[in-house]
Amino acid sequence: MQVTILKSKIHRATITEVALHYEGSITLPRSLVEMAGMHLHEKVLVANVNNGNRFETYVIFGNEGEICLNGAAAHLGAVGDKIIIMAWAQMDEREAATFHPKVVLVDDHNKPKAHP
Question: Has 25 been annotated as catalytic?
Answer without folding.
Answer: yes
